[in-house]
Design a protein that fits this description.
Shape of chain B: globular
Largest sheet of chain B: 7 strands, mixed
Helix content of chain A: under 10%
Number of helices of chain B: 0
Distance between the termini of chain B: 37 Å
Radius of gyration of chain B: 13 Å
Structural class of chain B: mainly beta
Strand content of chain B: over 45%
Oligomer: heterodimer
Number of helices of chain A: 0
Largest interface: A-B, 26 and 27 residues
Order of helices and strands of chain A: EEEEEEEEE
Chain lengths: ~110, ~120
């Protein structure tokens, strides 16, 4: 399975944008890039996913490099509630891999 | 549309007892996944089920653990003869048919404590 690499931790100030990077240099042409986050003492929560084009939803934006070897999750205005561990996960389009493979993720701290 | 429901939220068992964890998927979802999160660690996949079928149990310990997803009712993760090392948070997720496009929706988890 293609692997992802993320920084262990990042800090942000409240109401500032946050850019969370993810490297996936061995990504295959059929892999979707998914992002999940886990708030303290809660289950993981889906954030966003994309294949080739940049994606936006109410929670975040996903910027995908042209060669697809990296991507960036963008929180436009961080709030204290965005403090969580963020996971970048690759999923095969064909569905051969049913489960999500969680790495260590990036622990985001948000300062007031 | 109710989300994924898990119960109980907290479960305390003595060593040697059985633990039964229940998961009701989101309405319309026929695929269920169980994950375990040990204290201070990441989530690890355990088992993937569709109605009445186990699709992938590669993450399940070989002994004492079993899972089912009957035609009617919730999915059940059963741990027999629990040991202290089974203490963890167990999360259930559901999805439409598996595929790279489809996200998984997680429940709040069951926190199992073995005394």
């Amino acid at each position: 399975d293609a692997k992802t690499t993320q920084p262990n931790s990042m800090e942000s100030n409240e109401e500032e944008p946050v850019h969370l990077p993810c490297n996936h240099s061995t990504i295959s042409g059929t892999d979707y890039i998914h992002w999940y986050r886990q708030l303290p003492s809660q289950g993981p929560e889906y954030v966003i996913h994309g294949l080739t084009s940049n994606v936006n939803n109410r929670m975040a934006s996903l910027a995908i490099a042209e060669d697809r070897k990296s991507s960036t999750l963008i929180l436009h205005r961080a709030t204290l509630r965005d403090a969580a561990v963020y996971y970048c996960i690759l999923r095969d389009r064909g569905g051969s891999q049913g489960n999500l493979i969680f790495g260590k993720g990036t622990k985001l701290s948000v300062k007031p | 549309n109710a989300g994924v429901m898990q119960n109980p939220r907290h479960l305390v068992r003595r060593r040697g007892q059985e633990a039964r964890l229940r998961c009701s998927p989101m309405k319309g979802h026929s695929h269920v996944y169980w994950y375990r999160q040990l204290p201070e660690e990441g989530l690890k996949f355990m088992v993937y089920l569709q109605k009445e079928n186990i699709i992938d149990e590669s993450g399940m310990p070989k002994e004492r653990f079993s899972a089912e997803f009957p035609k009617e009712g919730p999915s059940i993760l059963r741990i027999q003869q629990v040991v202290r090392g089974d203490s963890a948070a167990y999360f259930c997720a559901s999805s439409p048919p598996a595929g790279g496009r489809n996200e998984q929706y997680f429940g709040p988890g069951t926190r199992l404590t073995v005394t």
